[in-house]
Amino acid sequence: MPMLEAIKWVKDRVYILEQRLLPEKIEYLECTDYEEVALAIENLSIRGAPAIGIAAAMGIALACMNIKASTAKEIYDKLKPVFNRLISTRPTAVNIKWAIERMERLIKNNLNLSPDKLKKALKNEAIKIQEEDIEINKKIGEYALPLFKNGCTVMTYCNAGALATGGYGTATAPMYLAKEKGINFRVIACETRPVLQGARITSFELLQAGIDVTLITDNTAGVLLKKGMIDFVILGTDRTVRNGDVANKIGTYSLAVLCKENKVPFYVAAPTSSIDLRIKSGVQIPIEERDPNEVTKIKNVPIAPEGIKVINMAFDVTPAKYVTAIITEKGAFLPNHIKYINNSEKIEKLRLKL
Ligand code: MRU
After folding, report:
1. 236: CA distance to ligand 1 center in Å?
2. 90 and 160: one domain?
C-alpha cells in the first residue's frame, strides 16, 4: 500500500487526512476555505509540526483564491487576519509561523503582480513547501541511517512520521530508508498519552510500511531502557531553540532523562523549519495547553470522575544537555552547535559522523 499523505492540494482544494479517526477509518476532509484548515489544525485532524506548517501555507493559498481584489496590495491587506487566525491555532510548533512568514515574503516581493498571478504564485509556493519538506526528510533519513545497525532496537515517541510531515517523516525517515536497504531492525513505539499518536498513528504507519513495530504504554519505556533493550531513541521536535533545548510532545523530557540515566543515546530529528534561532532558551517556548477532555476521556468514553481537575500541557521542553545530537537536513550536530545552522562554513566543520 502506498504511503498515505497527511495533506494534499488537488484542483484548488485542500484534502486533509482526518487523523482523529485513525487507525479505524481513512477519510479526507475537503477544505475550500482557510477557516476549515484552521479548525483542522486546532482540533488535531492534522498535526505534527511540518504538516501543520504546510497546512497553514495551503490555508493562505485557499484564502487568497476566495479574495476579491483589484491589486496585490489589497490581497495582502485582506490576508493579514488570515495569518493571525492560522497562527492562533497551535502555539508551540514554530512551523506555522515559519510557513506564514515564507508566504508573506513572497507576497511582499511580488506586489507588482496582478491578483490572478499572485494567487497562482501563492498556490505554487504552498505546494513547493510540501515538496521540499519531503526532500528534507529524506536527507534527515540519510544522515541518521548509520545509526541503524543490523539487529538494533529503536524507540520513538509520539508521531514524527509521514503523517506528521509532507511525507516520509523526520524520525521515521531513517526507518523507511533502513527498511529499503534491507537492514534488520525493530521499532518500539510509545503509545503517547493523552491522544495516543504513537498507538494510533506511528504503529499504524510503520505496520503499513512492513516495519517491525511493537507498541508499549508510555510507562514501560523506563524498564526497557534499564534492561538494555533499546539501542537509541529517535523522535521529532516542534521547536528547537538557540541553546539546543527541544520542545516536543509531553513526555519527551521524561524519556530523555531516562535515556541519560541508562546511557542510551537520545536523538532529535529536526528539519530547519522547526529551528527557531530567535529564541535563546527553551523556557521561552510557548507551551500549548489543551482541552481537559483529552485526559479524562478516551474516544469520548470517560475514564475519570466528572469534574476532576486536569493539567493538560501538550508539550514539554527537553534541555540540550539530554540530547545526544540533533539531526537536520544539513547533517547531525551537537545541540550547542545548532545556533550555527545558517552559517554554512561553520556548520560544515561541525557536522557529526554518526
Ligand atoms: O500534538 P502533535 O501530534 O502535533 O505533536 C506532534 C509531535 O510532538 C511531533 O513529535 C513533532 O511535531 C514533530 S513531527 C515531525
Report:
1. 7
2. no
Ligand 1 atom closest to 315 (CA): 8
Residue 53: alpha-carbon gap to chain centroid: 9
Q: Is the residue at 1 inside a domain?
A: no
* All cell numbers assigned to 213: 513495530
**What global pTM score does this model have?**
0.97
Q: Who contacts 94 (Cβ-Cβ below 8 Å, separation ≥6)?
A: 49, 238, 239, 273, 274, 275, 276
249 lines ligand 1 (CB under 6 A): yes
Q: How many CB atoms lie within 10 A of CB 227?
A: 9
State the residue range of the domain holding 112: 7-137
DSSP element (H, E) containing 280: none
pLDDT per position as a tens digit, 180-203:
999 999 999 999 999 999 999 999
Q: Are residues 78 and 119 in the same domain?
A: yes
Residues 155 and 301 placed together within one structural domain of the fold: yes
Q: In what order do the strands lie in the sheet with 315-318?
A: 275-276, 239-241, 246-249, 315-318
